C-alpha cells in the first residue's frame, strides 16, 4: 500500500484541508454543502477533510451549512450498514459537541419504492442488467430529492463527492469531460438543476486515500480502523454515492462489492461471501436467499403473461414475461420470512408487509388496471 514517505502524506493531507477550507469560505458561501456519504473510503475521506477544515474556521465565519447525507436502500449489506450508521452517529455527536454547522441525514426510498414492495408487492422480476429498476428508486431518487429541496430552499447547493480519476478509465474520461461552472473547483450537476459538484479528492490515487486515512484519525474521534477492517473482510470495493445512472456503472457489478445484499444483478455477492469467509457465518442464509432469488427470475411458470399495465410484450415472436405471479410473490415472501428467522434480525419490516398485502388485494381486484409500466 505504501509508496511514499509518511511525511508526504501529511503534506498532501494539509494541502487538501487548506483547499477545502478556502472553498468553504469562497464567494458561494450562502449555498449549503451536501457531502454524499456512503461510509466507503472515498466519501469518508471527504467528510474527514470537511470536518477538519471546519475546525479551522472561526465560529463567526462558519456561515455555510454542511449536510452529511447517506442513502440507506434498506437492503444494504448488513456489516456495511452497521458501519455506516455508526459513523453517522459519531459524526453527529462530535458536530453537536463542537457546535459545528453540520446536519447529518439519511435518505431512504419512498414506502412504495422499497426493494421488497416492488419485488414482492408488485412482482417486479429480480433485477438484472437489462432491467435494473432498483438503482433509480433505491438510490438516485432519495438523494436527488434531498438535494432538490436544498436547492429550492437556498437557491443552489454544492454537492461534495469523493470521485477520483484513478477509480477507472471510464471515471477519468467522465471527469475530464466536465466543463467548469461558476468557479474553477465547481461544475454544474448534469441532472440536478441549480446544483454544483465539488470533488475535493479528484486527483488522489487509491494508495493515497488509504495512506491518509491510516495516518490521520477522524476529527470526530476514534480511528478509521473499522473502515479498514471492513474493506479487508469484504475483499475491497464499495458502492459510491449514486446521483445518476451514469454514476452507477459499479452498482450491480462485480466491481461494486458493497451494494445491496439482495442484488441479483451480480452473479455472486463477493462482498457478503467475503464477510462469511472471514468468520461472519450468520450471513450464509442471506447468500442462499439471494442465489435462489436470482435462479427463479427466469422460470416462466412464476411469471405472468401480461405486464402490470395489462399489455402483452412480444419481441421477435417471443413473449416477454411480465411480473412474478401472485403465487410466486407469496412464495418469495414466505422464503424471505424463513430467511429472516434463520438470520435472527429484521430483513423486511411489518410496514412493508402491510404495503405488500394491500398491493396484492388491489391486484386481485383489478389485475389489468392500466397505469403501471413495470
Ligand atoms: S446494488 Fe444491485 S440491487 Fe442495489 S441498487 Fe445497485 S443494482 Fe440494484
UniProtKB/TrEMBL annotation:
This is Sulfurtransferase. Gene3D superfamilies: HUPs. It comes from the Bacteria. Keywords: Transferase. Residues 34-264 form the Phosphoadenosine phosphosulphate reductase domain. The keyword Lipid metabolism does not apply. The keyword Transferase applies. One of its GO terms (molecular function) is transferase activity.
